[in-house]
Amino acid sequence: KLFHLEDIDWHGKTEIELADMQSEQRTIHEIFHQNDQKTWVLGKASIFSERIIDKSGKLRDLEVRRIPVFEGDGKRKSLVITAEDVTDRKRVENKLLLQYAVSDILSKASSLKQAAPEILEVLFVVGGWKAGSIWTVNSAKNILEYVNVWHVDGFQIPNFEAESMKTTFKIGVGLPGRVWLTGQPAWIEDVTRDDNFPRISAALKDGLFGAVAFPICFGEEILGVIDCFHSMVCPPDNEMIDMFNCLSHDIGQFIKRKIAEDDQKRNLEKHKKLLSDTVNVIGSAMEARDPYTA
């Protein structure tokens, strides 16, 4: 039931064979297979955090325990596997972890470009996403501009990264553009079936399907957009969207604060220059009027 195998002749099949039979569940089967092999190598009971898609299409977090059983001569006999659904517990833990981690990153960063890779990394570790990018609004040009892209180790996205780096979005165009237009998170179950996704070709080449994007806000103002991608088709998850909304305002406050600091620095430099110019003018005037320098 975990893998929706009720209508499939699964007896005697390996995880890899099942992955070939269920393309939509391929990534899940492959991860289970990898963790099975790790348990055999360890030769002892092990616990792994894994994810599945339930019958309603939602992602569920599992805590999977594996116990390897060996014959008397050391040969593999069987693998005893139990799984506990820990989705609700994980959601609470992840929300707290995400908020704390992002706040810590922002407190130490001097710019969004510096903070971006770490923010994306935390998003992917906590949310299970495979890749993503950050975009900021260029008010003068009225477009969204690329800031940074990131992906988890071992999941390469050369085509999608190259395409993102050279792309800008007008309001309403693409996933970032529609979020900029509405000011609300947007979720795409499968980008290959979306008619407003300009980076579709690159996404297909790199195996990206599910996607979500959320705005970076300060009050009612949209300052940028963060988008995240998965290697599986992903149905909407309202709890995760709520978590992204909290993150949105934290990053927005950071950007506004940095803009204010930069403005303050520029004004300070202007005042310093004005003061310096004034002193020089006064000095020159006084020198011109000093009879002893004539």
Q: Give start-end ranges of low-pLDDT stretches.
A: 278-283
Distance between the termini: 101 Å
Mean pLDDT metric? 81
The fraction of residues assigned to DSSP E strands is 15-25%
The tally of helices reads 8
What structural category arises from helix and sheet content? alpha+beta
Characterize the biggest β-sheet: 6 strands, antiparallel
Order of helices and strands: HHEEEHHEEHEHEHEEH
Helix content: 40-55%
Beta-strand segment tally: 9
The whole-angstrom Rg is: 27 Å
Gross geometry: elongated
- Side by side, the strands of the main sheet go 6-5-4-9-8-7
What are its keywords?
alpha+beta, six-stranded antiparallel sheet, 8 helices, 294 residues, single chain, three-stranded antiparallel sheet
Description:
This protein has 294 residues and is α+β, with helices and mostly antiparallel strands. Helices cover 47% and strands 23% of the residues. It is built from eight helices and nine strands. A hairpin with a 2-residue loop joins strand 8 (211-218) and strand 9 (221-229). It starts with 14 loop residues before the first helix and ends in a 5-residue tail after the last helix. 28% of the residues are buried. Residues 278-283 have low confidence and may be disordered.
Topology:
Elements: H1 15-21, H2 26-42, E1 46-53, E2 59-70, E3 76-85, H3 87-108, H4 112-127, E4 131-138, E5 143-151, H5 158-165, E6 168-169, H6 174-182, E7 186-188, H7 200-205, E8 211-218, E9 221-229, H8 238-289
Antiparallel strand pairs: 1-2, 2-3, 4-5, 4-9, 5-6, 7-8, 8-9
Helix pairs in contact: 1-2, 3-4, 3-8
